């Protein structure tokens, strides 16, 4: 793993084939030709109050409309998008992905290998561009809207990266990269899957890198990694972040039973990394 601090402009490398990742935020990167659609949750998005809907179209265009009336509010157009014939030959999708800020006043979006962009919702004005991005970055805001995270592919080999930005300044706060390509010789899939807490600054990432798998927690306010929990590569745990953003709750499985039996539950305090509670399941009688 590489943990990179500081800023560096991203070179315009593209991926040669299409991949997708799900989860939370498990592979979430979505890159492909214009014949492959981006994840539906990213090419159409609603504002937090469900008053606006943003729909993305090939050619770097996003249309924002009022849900109640269907009236056109504003149209966003990325600059630097290739012509149609070039897009058809490209390995990169030129349908933007987008996400509303928690307050619903701005829209973050990315398109092809262009910089991640922040737009004013009412005017369509470009507010900022964020560098250090990859191809087909999937974007997510923190609960308070002060941080933006993107996850995607950064070169033809499938190198995957997560980038964390300060929304106000555009500063790249932190990056995490999976060194190995997206598929190894045995077609094992490596991935980074981020998930912001619903409240507070904590960010949890499910990282698969070769034979290793772990949950890594960042405090995005202090820009510090607070804990790393190694998990089973073949029998990964179920996990959830508490609604208040304070706890990481895991349910682990016994690999010897093909992942059918629960081994234990563990609760961690994410800010300190301390193990708060753990328990094994009650023994049940066979029926």
Chart the SSEs and their pairings.
Blueprint: E1 2-4, H1 40-43, E2 44-46, E3 52-57, E4 61-66, E5 72-77, H2 84-89, E6 97-100, E7 106-110, E8 116-120, E9 126-130, E10 135-141, E11 147-153, E12 160-166, E13 172-178, E14 191-196, E15 202-209, E16 212-219, E17 224-231, E18 238-241, E19 247-253, E20 262-269, E21 275-279
Antiparallel strand pairs: 1-13, 2-3, 3-4, 4-5, 6-7, 7-8, 8-9, 10-11, 11-12, 12-13, 14-15, 15-16, 16-17, 18-19, 19-20, 20-21
Largest sheet: 5 strands, antiparallel
Which band does the percent of strand residues land in? 35-45%
CATH topology of the largest domain: Methylamine Dehydrogenase, Chain H
Oligomer: single chain
Secondary structural class: mainly beta
Please summarize what this structure is.
The protein is mainly beta. It has two helices and 21 strands.
Search tags:
Methylamine Dehydrogenase, Chain H; five-stranded antiparallel sheet; Thrombin, subunit H; disordered N terminus; single chain; four-stranded antiparallel sheet; mainly beta; 287 residues
Report on the architecture of this protein.
- With 287 residues, this protein is mainly beta.
- The protein has 2 domains: 2-196, Methylamine Dehydrogenase, Chain H, CATH 2.130.10; 207-287, Thrombin, subunit H (Beta Barrel).
- The chain contains 2 helices and 21 strands.
- It has helices at residues 40-43, 84-89, and strands spanning 2-4, 44-46, 52-57, 61-66, 72-77, 97-100, 106-110, 116-120, 126-130, 135-141, 147-153, 160-166, 172-178, 191-196, 202-209, 212-219, 224-231, 238-241, 247-253, 262-269, 275-279.
- The strands form 5 sheets. A 5-stranded antiparallel β-sheet has the order 1-13-12-11-10, with no helix packed on it. Strands 2-3-4-5 form a 4-stranded antiparallel β-sheet.
- A hairpin with a 4-residue loop joins strand 16 (212-219) and strand 17 (224-231).
- The longest helix is centred in the first third of the chain and has 6 residues, at 84-89.
- The radius of gyration is 20 Å and the shape is globular.
- Residues 1-41 have low confidence and may be disordered.
